[in-house]
Automatic annotation (TrEMBL):
<dbReference type="GO" id="GO:0008237">
    <property type="term" value="F:metallopeptidase activity"/>
</dbReference>
<keyword id="KW-0862">Zinc</keyword>
<keyword id="KW-0378">Hydrolase</keyword>
<keyword id="KW-0031">Aminopeptidase</keyword>
<comment type="similarity">
    <text>Belongs to the peptidase M18 family.</text>
</comment>
<dbReference type="GO" id="GO:0046872">
    <property type="term" value="F:metal ion binding"/>
</dbReference>
<dbReference type="InterPro" id="IPR001948">
    <property type="entry name" value="Peptidase_M18"/>
</dbReference>
<dbReference type="GO" id="GO:0006508">
    <property type="term" value="P:proteolysis"/>
</dbReference>
<dbReference type="InterPro" id="IPR023358">
    <property type="entry name" value="Peptidase_M18_dom2"/>
</dbReference>
<dbReference type="GO" id="GO:0005737">
    <property type="term" value="C:cytoplasm"/>
</dbReference>
<protein>
    <recommendedName>
        <fullName>Aspartyl aminopeptidase</fullName>
    </recommendedName>
</protein>
<keyword id="KW-0482">Metalloprotease</keyword>
<keyword id="KW-0645">Protease</keyword>
<keyword id="KW-0479">Metal-binding</keyword>
<dbReference type="GO" id="GO:0004177">
    <property type="term" value="F:aminopeptidase activity"/>
</dbReference>
<dbReference type="Pfam" id="PF02127">
    <property type="entry name" value="Peptidase_M18"/>
</dbReference>
Length: 471
């Protein structure tokens, strides 16, 4: 068996550090800072941007945009972007999560995105996310955002025994998302944990959640339960991501859709700009934009449907020349977006779900996604540019079209192509079990993705100068 490539091990580390979109952004921040990227604030002016320098900013701490400005950049030049998303389908805690039934303490959750919810049953679950904490400082009060993650399994959604549901073998599992997707936290019998433990009384000001749960969260946040003002938490599988399979050729993990593309694009940007002279001949801006809320339509202040990307392009352009308002339009027409979101690999047990001539394989390289009805934003020009980069580096490339008798999903590609007016190609690494709590992809495709993205950043300026369309 071949040794695991460093990029694959790095991805596994990234996945294990990123149980939520907030954690994924935090891990991305750590990596960017270590690579010399300076953090910007959208609340401040960006007047001091310089050619040859690298920057990033976050929005809501669940979306992150990083960019490296070429040493030969001038206002009006193009942006070479890879866009992906940080969120994945999951179960999020309700604003009032306290549920008590039949002697059990349960936690109320709501479904986020189009998950395969039956895969969440009988898993060792925990919670992670962010909390807003009240802190007393210098005689005053401030409010701090902190990330939390309870490491040990504290929750489980148990299935019903087959003896109590004899029709499951003939009719299949039928899940009512309201009634059946309620994880068990504890039993009422064991809820008393001592005099210093959580109390079900007026002493605890927050009665919307089980005091036991609040105590666990407060321990992770290093605060008292009554200092928790609010939180955004979700359920997570405690089983770590791993390189697996008899030939160690797969990655088994949650959230491959779409942390796999987020990681590959981020690493490609960092590595393509890490050498001392890597930006000397670059006249454009290399950018990675990782958005939240793709799984629910991108319509939020930090989703791809927001002005976040357009704001970034405008502010970067304006920081180099604020007197010419038409330079942004010029820059957009010189720009290019790779919309990177995982693709559907051919499933050996469901061969009929793929169109005969479009069957992406694991280990087969990135997949260019096409759809005549614009569910994907790829066209002949953008597909050619992306494919040409693959051919220059002998990288495998595949094509995907959904069957005419099946509905087609979509990505941030059409949203940004129509909202910003930027040329776009939709692509993704092939995977199986998409939207399951536990997905799988191939290790070779991680290497292919990273190498393809890195080559795109390094060579797009030169390649695009040879492509003639609107002239």
């Amino acid at each position: 068996m071949a040794a695991v490539a460093p990029v694959v091990s790095d991805l596994v580390d990234f996945l294990n550090a990123s149980p939520t979109a907030f954690h994924a952004v935090d891990e991305a921040k750590r990596r960017l800072k270590a690579a010399g990227f300076a953090q910007l604030s959208e609340r401040e002016e960006w007047a001091g941007l310089e050619p040859g320098r690298k920057y990033f900013f976050t929005r809501n701490h669940s979306t992150i945009v990083a960019f490296a400005i070429g040493a030969k950049y001038v206002a009006g030049n193009g942006f070479h972007i890879i866009g992906a998303h940080t969120d994945s389908p999951c179960l999020k805690l309700k604003p009032v999560s306290k549920v008590t039934k039949g002697g059990y303490l349960e936690v109320g959750v709501q479904t986020y995105g189009g998950g395969l919810w039956y895969t969440w049953f009988d898993r060792d679950l925990t919670v992670a996310g962010r909390v807003i904490i009240r802190e007393k400082r210098d005689g005053g009060v401030s409010y701090t955002h902190k990330l939390v993650r309870v490491q040990e399994p504290i929750l489980r959604i148990p299935t019903l025994a087959i003896h109590l549901d004899r029709t499951i073998s003939s009719e299949g599992l039928k899940v009512n998302n309201q009634n059946h997707l309620v994880p068990v936290l504890a039993t009422s019998i064991k809820k008393i944990v001592g005099e210093n433990g959580p109390k079900e009384s007026s002493e605890n000001k927050n009665m919307k959640h089980h005091p036991l749960l609040l105590q666990l969260i407060a321990k992770e946040a290093n605060c008292e339960p009554d200092e928790i003002c609010d939180f955004e938490l979700q359920l997570c599988d405690t089983q770590p991501s791993a390189v697996a399979g008899a030939m160690k050729e797969f990655i088994f993990s949650g959230r491959l859709d779409n942390l796999c593309m987020s990681f590959s694009s981020l690493k490609a940007l960092i590595d393509s700009t890490s050498a001392e002279h890597s930006l000397d001949n670059e006249s454009g801006v290399r950018m990675v934009a990782l958005f939240d809320h793709e799984e629910v339509g991108s319509d939020s202040a930090q989703g791809a449907g927001s002005p976040a990307m357009l704001d970034a392009l405008s502010r970067i352009t304006g920081s180099f020349n604020s007197s010419n308002s038409k330079l942004l339009e010029k820059a957009i027409q010189r720009s290019f977006l790779v919309s990177a979101d995982m693709a559907h690999a051919l499933h050996p047990n469901y061969m009929d779900k793929h169109e005969e001539n479009h069957q992406p394989k694991l280990h087969g390289g990135l997949v260019i996604k096409h759809n005549a009805n614009q569910r994907y934003a790829t066209n002949a020009v953008t597909a050619f540019i992306f494919r040409e980069i693959a051919e220059r580096h002998q990288l495998p490339i595949q094509d995907f079209v959904v069957r005419n008798d099946m509905a087609c999903g979509s990505t941030i590609g059409p949203i940004l192509a129509s909202g910003v007016g930027i040329r776009t190609v939709d692509i993704g690494a092939p995977q199986l079990s998409m939207h399951s709590i536990r997905e799988m992809c191939a290790v070779d495709d991680i290497s292919h993705s990273y190498e393809h993205f890195k080559a795109y950043f390094e060579e797009f300026t030169e390649l695009d100068s040879k492509v003639k369309v609107d002239y």
